[in-house]
Amino acid sequence: MLSRLLKEHQAKQNERRELQEKRRREAITAATCLTEALVDHLNVGVAQAYMNQRKLDHEVKTLQVQAAQFAKQTGQWIGMVENFNQALKEIGDVENWARSIELDMRTIATALEYVYKGQLQSASS
């Protein structure tokens, strides 16, 4: 009887050990699956962040190229405007010179006319 009780006790202990080992393996498997799922989820986020960063880097490079082109074009426009402004100043200078010459010519013409009329009056008297 004592040996039967001992055998039953050992059998129950073995069953409990096997059940405990089975549960331990299931827990390890579940923990592994959970860990893999978490890592996969994190990897998706990391991959998305990496792709976004690559897109941003590409956009930054494109923007830098476009900004350089715009700066170059703006410099050309500024040069053209400065040249145009200088040409306008020169035209203004020529116009002022022409007015001055015209005024001088009118003064000379008036003086010549005055002298001519003075000579006509002297000759007729």
From TrEMBL:
Positions of region (Disordered): 1-20
Pfam families: GCN5L1 (PF06320)
Recorded catalytic activity of this chain's protein: L-lysyl-[protein] + acetyl-CoA = N(6)-acetyl-L-lysyl-[protein] + CoA + H(+)
Entry GO terms, CC: BLOC-1 complex
GO biological process, one term: endosomal transport
InterPro entries, per the entry: BLOC1S1 (IPR009395)
Family: Belongs to the BLOC1S1 family.
General function of this protein: Acts as a protein acetyltransferase. Negatively regulates aerobic respiration through mitochondrial protein lysine-acetylation. May counteract the action of the deacetylase SIRT3 by acetylating and regulating proteins of the mitochondrial respiratory chain including ATP5F1A and NDUFA9. Acts as a regulator of mTORC2 signaling in response to hypotoxic stress by mediating acetylation of RICTOR, thereby protecting RICTOR against ubiquitination and subsequent degradation by the proteasome.
Name of the protein in question: Biogenesis of lysosome-related organelles complex 1 subunit 1
Organism: Orycteropus afer afer
